[in-house]
Inverse folding.
């Protein structure tokens, strides 16, 4: 964590929903080209944190720095243009549009739009099934294929950092395995990955570094390989 | 018997085209933002008066006034959306409805103040011409022109929605606003542009209506109900549905007029609208 360049830095972020403080003084760093994971149970504040990074929420205080630039409070559509892409929980594909259209709208930012053909070919290489079904209406795809489409759409913005929110939720184990393989492939190509999961074992296995959240705070940090599953579970449940 | 009904059927179909143009902008806004723009009819009539002013100033053909009316109405839409509706968009269903209702009242009364309650029409040579097909059947030229423009407009819109980034961005924002933001779409700006485009259709509708029928400061309400009818009957899923919705409404009115007299033709249209609302509230062509 010391030598690599830090691509994303979250400093002392607090987020409130009305009077309720959802995130308490959270700080963490993401080294360039790494895979890190944020682990926590439902309501631990993971999604809130992600929303703040992606620009869907404004932090009450604290700073979010991406590639040396302060992006705190920028609108979501601006943050995509900066190079952060979020694969949202529940996939959130555009159900009435075709697979092709879902992908092509992913490169809406001017920078991505200029190379949309190239990006599309890369996505089709990664997920051949999307090429096969490119003219189908997105809602007709299976759950796993929809998840692939959501990932492909996020990749179409040509991100430097891609965040996966609860990507394995509701998918068969075999599909989850396949998708995790694709994620490490995406990472090998040079994209920094942030995984957000409830599944402790899978997160530790897939990532280099982990942060465990509980009650809106980070309660445990460490190299994923050095963290014991038991310790993580204790931190996770606060036992 | 056949001869009795051939003319109203033909007129009804052609009139349906005009109704589709009246409804298309409102369908768009409802589809994208789930907002019922109660001022849609009045904004359309505003365009009719705008055209009237341009004609009296420049003495040009009503169609040519569109060169000015279209961009003006686009900006009216942009401003209405960004300055008024966007502010209340996140505050539930009623505030946007009330904003458009207020806008409707303001436009109606402003028109009344400026233009008096007298009937106006956009004078043109087409509105009195007919093409005689047989001794019993003729095509009113202005109805035909309305219909052709409606079909052309729907074809252009279809291409716009299917093939352009902007069109796809509008559809994406209507499918899932949050996800649209996440791919880089500024949904607020998209809503502004969408309302601008809806007002372009209102400008076209306003000029066509003004060339086809007389209008008053309060005519907007009548066309609001027609637009509403077109949307309810045709459903929101396709532009073709809007055209078919318009045709069904037009046919219902004119065939109804054959049975119960022209004085009740609007009533017949509303009855059909009510029937559809009761039997198939999702619209005749909706999938589910």
């Amino acid at each position: 964590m010391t030598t690599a360049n830090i691509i994303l830095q979250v400093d002392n972020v607090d987020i409130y929903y009305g009077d309720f403080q959802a995130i308490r003084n959270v700080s963490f760093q993401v080294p360039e080209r790494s895979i890190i994971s944020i682990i926590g149970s439902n309501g631990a504040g993971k999604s809130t944190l992600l929303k703040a990074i992606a620009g869907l929420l404004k932090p009450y205080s604290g700073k979010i720095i991406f590639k040396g630039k302060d992006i705190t409070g920028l609108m979501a559509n601006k943050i995509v243009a900066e190079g952060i892409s979020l694969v949202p929980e529940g996939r959130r594909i555009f159900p009435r549009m075709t697979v092709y259209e879902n992908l092509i709208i992913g490169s809406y930012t001017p920078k991505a739009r200029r190379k949309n053909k190239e990006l599309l070919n890369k996505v089709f290489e990664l997920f051949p099934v999307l090429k096969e079904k490119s003219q189908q209406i997105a809602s007709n795809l299976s759950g796993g294929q929809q998840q692939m489409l959501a990932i492909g759409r996020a990749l179409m913005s040509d991100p430097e950092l891609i965040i996966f929110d609860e990507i394995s939720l509701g998918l068969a184990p075999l599909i989850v395995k396949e998708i995790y393989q694709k994620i490490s492939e995406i990472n090998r190509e040079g994209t920094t990955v942030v995984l957000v999961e409830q599944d402790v074992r899978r997160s530790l296995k897939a990532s280099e570094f982990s942060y465990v959240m509980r009650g809106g705070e980070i309660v445990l940090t460490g190299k994923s390989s050095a963290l014991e599953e038991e310790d993580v579970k204790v931190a996770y449940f606060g036992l | 018997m056949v001869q009795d009904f051939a003319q109203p059927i033909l007129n009804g179909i052609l009139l349906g085209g005009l109704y589709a143009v009246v409804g298309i902008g409102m369908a768009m806004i409802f589809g994208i933002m789930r907002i019922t723009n109660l001022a849609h009819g009045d904004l359309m009539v505003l365009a009719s008066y705008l055209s009237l002013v341009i004609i009296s100033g420049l003495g040009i053909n009503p169609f040519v006034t569109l060169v000015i009316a279209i961009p003006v109405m686009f900006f009216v839409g942009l401003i209405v959306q960004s300055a008024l509706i966007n502010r209340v968009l996140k505050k539930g269903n009623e505030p946007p409805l009330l904003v458009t209702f207020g806008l409707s009242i303001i436009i109606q009364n402003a028109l009344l103040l400026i233009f008096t309650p007298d009937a106006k029409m956009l004078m043109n040579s087409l509105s009195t011409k007919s093409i005689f097909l047989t001794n019993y059947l003729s095509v009113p030229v202005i109805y035909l022109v309305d219909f052709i423009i409606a079909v052309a407009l729907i074809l252009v819109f279809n291409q716009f929605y299917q093939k352009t980034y902007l069109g796809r961005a509008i559809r994406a924002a209507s499918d899932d606003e949050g996800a649209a933001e996440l791919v880089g779409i500024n949904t607020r700006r998209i809503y502004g542009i969408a309302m601008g485009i809806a007002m372009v259709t209102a400008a076209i509708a306003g000029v066509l209506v003004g060339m086809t029928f007389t209008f008053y400061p309060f005519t907007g309400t009548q066309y609001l109900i027609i637009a509403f009818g077109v949307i309810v009957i045709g459903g929101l899923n396709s532009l073709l549905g809007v055209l078919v919705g318009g045709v069904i409404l037009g046919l219902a009115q004119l065939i109804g007029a054959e049975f119960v007299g022209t004085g009740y033709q609007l009533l017949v249209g509303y009855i059909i609208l009510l029937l559809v609302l009761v039997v198939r509230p999702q619209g005749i062509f909706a999938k589910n």
